[in-house]
Design brief:
Layout (H helix, E strand, L loop, with lengths): L9 E5 L4 H11 L3 E6 L20 H6 L3 E5 L5 H11 L4 E4 L5 H4 L4 H7 L4 E6 L14 H7 L20 H24 L4 E5 H7 L3 H9 L16 E6 L2 E6 L3 H11 L4 H4 L6 H6 L1 H12 L4 H11 L3 E3 L3 H5 L2 H5 L3 E6 L3 E6 L23 H7 L5 H8 L3
Parallel strand pairs: 1-2, 1-4, 2-3, 4-5, 5-6
Antiparallel strand pairs: 7-8, 8-9, 10-11
Helix pairs in contact: 1-7, 7-8, 10-14
């Protein structure tokens, strides 16, 4: 039987909301045992977000907490801190996204836990990092998107800066943190110990400015908003067929020539000096859009997309979330999977996008109820007896 890539790796997950849980859900998909440590008084804040009338359970929480166990421990109590120490002795990774200093204040910071287990990998996800002048400043995805310059690149040219429809800064950060953790796991046997990892939202989002940062650092060019278009290549963007919009992306002359000849059957467009190479097309973007929309408006988007697919031209229809999830592409890729939940039964969800031939991702289990695994985890991992478990739970 195939095993998962992170089989046998145990994670103590102190994270809430999105950036941290997104990191740990990726590790869980790869097979790590994720023990989500939650406040007994309500747990992760997102348990109260988007509560489904059908399930009476948060769809937001379901999206990023599959393949996890939930234990309810108050880390502020002596018994809670001792339980964390006992769990850390038998864990590989800690991931936390509390405010700077919180874990240290309760005796469960990196120095405390690495003294118990020198092989522990301790990853912090924060807004501005654990060191420096901004370490105590709170911050969330919308704030970081605004401050990093990311929002200034999103939206229509004559519109306001716009944050993305999902909290992409949180998700970037979670991905970077998961990557750093797997690197630390890889090197742990070489150096004989774990290490501390710090992945701030701000750093991750500035990193994702990509070509816009290079343009400024090298040429002092401040890139602006280009809506659905592209400053570097054309035609890229939304074009209007007779019955709706099509998204098209052509980034070289070879594709554009084939597009003009085989799809539009208008080779003279390529011969026009305004459109004969990419630089000219970028400079005459508005004229190009007008020329192409005049042709596109004569047929349906389904027919245009079929013609472009046959010619190898990247194009697709613009869908809402429901249309995307019901699409042929989603069905063909088997993206929607059933997730088992002990109380709710089978819950639909989106599978991991990762495919590994020898160490496949695990079959998904739906996000747990608050504290559902407290007794099992404390008994089997911390080695606690009934009285010790009762003390952690605050039972009289």
């Amino acid at each position: 039987m195939s095993t998962t890539a992170l089989d046998g790796i145990r994670v103590l997950d102190f994270t809430r909301v999105l950036a941290g849980p997104y990191c740990t859900v990726l590790l869980g998909d790869l097979g790590a045992e994720i023990i989500k440590i939650e406040n007994p008084e309500g747990g992760d804040d997102t348990r109260g977000f988007n509560v489904s009338p059908a399930l009476e359970f948060s769809t937001y929480f379901l999206a990023v907490n599959r393949n996890k166990k939930s234990i309810a421990i108050d880390i502020r109590t002596e018994a809670g801190g001792e339980a964390i120490h006992a769990l850390a002795a038998n864990a590989d990774i800690v991931v936390e996204n509390y405010r700077t200093g919180v874990m240290d204040r309760y005796g469960i910071g990196y120095e405390d836990l690495s003294a118990i287990n020198p092989r522990i990998i301790f990853a912090s996800v924060s807004a501005y990092g654990r060191e420096g002048p901004l370490k105590d400043r709170p911050g969330y995805d919308p704030i970081v998107q605004a401050e990093s310059g990311f929002m200034s690149l999103t939206g229509e040219p004559d519109g306001e800066p716009m944050r993305t429809g999902v909290s992409i800064a949180d998700m970037f950060t979670g991905m970077f943190a998961a990557q750093a953790i797997t690197a630390a796991l890889y090197v742990r046997d070489k150096i004989g110990r774990g290490q501390r990892i710090d992945v701030p939202l701000y750093d991750a989002t500035v990193n994702m400015l990509h070509h816009a940062s290079s343009a400024y650092l090298i040429d002092e060019v401040v890139t602006g908003r280009y809506g659905n278009g592209n400053i570097l290549a054309q035609p890229v963007g939304l074009f209007m067929a007779g019955d709706g919009p099509i998204m098209i992306a052509m980034t070289n002359n070879r594709l554009f020539k084939r597009f003009c000849e085989e799809v539009l059957e208008r080779p003279e467009i390529m011969d026009d000096p305004r459109f004969s190479d990419n630089s000219a097309r970028v400079a005459h973007r508005d004229e190009l859009i007008g020329e192409l929309n005049a042709v596109f408006g004569k047929d349906t988007r389904a027919n245009w997309i079929a013609k472009m697919a046959a010619a190898g031209i990247p194009a697709g229809e613009v869908r809402d979330v429901g249309q995307a999830l019901a699409s042929e592409e989603t069905r063909a890729r088997e993206m929607i999977v059933d997730q088992r939940h002990p109380r709710l039964g089978m819950v639909p969800g989106i599978r991991s996008p990762m495919t590994l031939s020898e160490t496949p991702v695990r079959d998904p289990v739906a996000a747990p109820d608050l504290g559902a695994d407290t007794e099992e985890v404390l008994r089997e991992i911390a080695g606690y007896d009934a009285d010790q478990i009762a003390a952690v739970k605050g039972d009289d």
